[in-house]
Amino acid sequence: MGTLTRLANFIESKGIDKAVVTDLMRPLREIRRAQQKPAHELRANVTYKTFVHRQVVLLEDPSEVLRELGRWLSTHPKNRGWKSNFEPDEYYRM
């Protein structure tokens, strides 16, 4: 069982609807799929100016997923008194 599946099972076991978990995990699974492609695969050389912008767009969804997971985990009763020294949306923004 992989780490993403374990994370999805953990979230579901805490009462989150399966459809919500599926939507939450989709961007993370897309990144995983992209990472598993062969690194030395022959493909067209990409050197145009919008490449960096495409990378930023690719990372926006996983950033939102991680932000939402952080918010969800922060609702645990043992975290009630904890206060951050920074605003997560500002500090982690890509």
Present the secondary structure layout.
Blueprint: H1 3-13, H2 18-35, H3 51-73, H4 88-91
Helix pairs in contact: 1-2, 2-3
Descriptive notes:
By secondary structure, this protein is mainly α. Helices cover 60% and strands 0% of the residues. It has helices at 3-13, 18-35, 51-73, 88-91. The longest helix has 23 residues, at 51-73. It starts with a helix and ends with a helix.
Which bin fits the share of residues in helices?
Answer: 55-70%
Number of helical stretches of at least 4 residues: 4
- Determine the strand fraction and express it as a percent band: under 5%
Taking the sheet with the most strands, its summary is:
none
What is the first-to-last residue Cα distance? 30 Å
Instruction: Give start-end ranges of low-pLDDT stretches.
Output: none
Write the H/E string, N to C. HHHH
Coarse shape:
flat
Helix/strand class: mainly alpha
Radius of gyration: 17 Å
User: How many β strands by DSSP?
Assistant: 0
What is the averaged pLDDT score? 80
Compact description:
Helices cover 60% and strands 0% of the residues. By secondary structure, the protein is an all-alpha fold.
